[in-house]
Design brief:
The structure is a homodimer.
Chain A: H1 11-24, H2 37-44, H3 48-60, E1 64-67, E2 73-76, H4 81-98, H5 103-124, H6 127-140, H7 147-163, H8 168-189, H9 195-210, H10 214-240
Antiparallel strand pairs in A: 1-2
The structure holds a DNA duplex (30 and 30 nucleotides).
DNA sequence: TAATTTTTATTTGTCTGACATTTAAAAGTC
DNA sequence: GACTTTTAAATGTCAGACAAATAAAAATTA
């Protein structure tokens, strides 16, 4: 854990980086206790508030956790898929909403990624995952369902599809992407979408997965992508000439 | 920007969450200036150090940036692809190294994702991107190249492939994944890999992209995946019986 | 008047020192 | 030996101060 590798400003950022590097390099291992704030103050020759600001930066990235009391302190955190996933969703959501990503671009990326795990899912999906998808389809066909509930069920359906691949790395990457794009999707297709059409395609996906037919899963996903993009184009068209 | 929606501890985390929510909801927009630290202290009824810890948490996520001096302050940051990308690499790298992800799992995910953008890349790759890939292949075939340099060239090659899809969202997602997995890849294949074999496959990929033949790109990627996984199995075998 | 320099006010960055709170371990008690 | 009390160590929070940067206002000068 060396001391100052950066340009001269923002001590707390420098210290955070030094500790971060130590964690990434393996110099500090999971569940290892960092020196106390007082000791870090001495080591880095800064005050305790500065050290604390550095530690809070690391805590925000889930790199450490802190515990109060005797034998408490800051500990290197084992980053869980949940941690990584929720961080990715936050970041990706803002990234998309702040950078004027076109619906088409987001949609293309989303379905490209989803189709990537369709073959694996066709091979490996469990009965449980299939049941989840069926249950979500059932929810989606309930008459009184709000738009919000329909969308969240939509996300759950696709999440089950992705989880079917049985690869936690894929699930982490894809679920983050799908969820981050959902607000963008919803905003455009909220009013225009036909639930029947979507439910029909969901059913085709579920049936294809049940029969473990990769090609049919892929075909249904392609249709869903085309339908979604067509929808968005229609909505855009209407916005241009609202007469 | 409401005040306390959480359980009673870690004020700085609560305040950070409140501001984070305000940014995500759009209540605070890009480049908008937050109240000064003193004003936030008043609003949230906490001391300035506590406010500062909250702001540092947000800065660690690239949600805000700060500027000193008169008319300085904390501003809502427009998250760039670079920000999101580097954060994702850090998180994903640690996620993989801390959770005993098997090489096979990581490898499967990586190539599944990469194959997802191969068709798009075949359609859209620019002459420039193709030239980048050729240049990296050339580097890889230089005799005196260190293992580290070979690996970083490998990453650059695949990055160009991904960028060829012309979809920044895909590039962001994929490049993060590929780069995060590279250390894991290298660790296992460093000594055992045959550069000739890999360069041959890279050439096949580049040729297929030049001819815009999706199927051939995919086939070459599948072969590269199989080769890589076979390699890893061999290495694992040797470790078990080192005689 | 116009350009330049100086001053000033505001804001973040950092430090010192203190107290509150939590928690595990040590000491004491029955 | 089991339980209670005390103690010490650590993080969480606060108050007040000064340093440094920076933009705007004021003063100065050509």
């Amino acid at each position: 854990m060396k001391n100052e590798p950066q340009k001269p400003s923002d001590l707390s950022a420098q210290i955070a980086q030094a500790i971060r590097d130590a964690i990434i390099s393996g110099e500090l291992i999971v569940d290892e206790r960092l020196p106390s704030e007082a000791e870090l103050s001495d080591q880095f020759q800064v005050s305790r508030p500065t050290v604390r600001e550095a530690l809070k930066r690391l805590a925000a990235q889930s790199l450490i956790r802190t515990q109060r009391g005797a034998s408490g302190g800051a500990f290197v955190n084992r980053i869980s898929f949940e941690d990584a996933y929720s961080q990715q969703v936050t970041t990706s959501t803002l990234l998309l909403s702040m950078n004027a990503i076109s619906f088409d671009t987001a949609c293309e990326a989303r379905f490209a990624l989803e189709r990537a795990c369709a073959p694996l899912s066709a091979q490996r999906r469990t009965a449980d995952q299939l049941a989840t998808m069926r249950a979500e389809i059932f929810r989606q066909s309930q008459p009184g369902l709000t738009d919000e509930a329909f969308c969240s069920s939509d996300v759950a359906f696709h999440r089950a599809l992705v989880d079917g691949a049985g690869n936690p790395v894929l699930s982490y990457q894809l679920a983050g992407a799908v969820e981050a794009m959902q607000p963008l999707m919803n905003m455009i297709t909220f009013t225009a979408r036909s639930r029947e059409e979507i439910i029909g395609l969901h059913n085709r996906i579920a049936n294809a997965l049940e029969a473990r037919e990769e090609a049919k899963v892929d075909a249904a996903l392609v249709e869903l992508e085309n339908y979604t993009r067509r929808l968005a184009q229609d909505v855009a068209q209407q916005h241009r000439k609202p007469a």
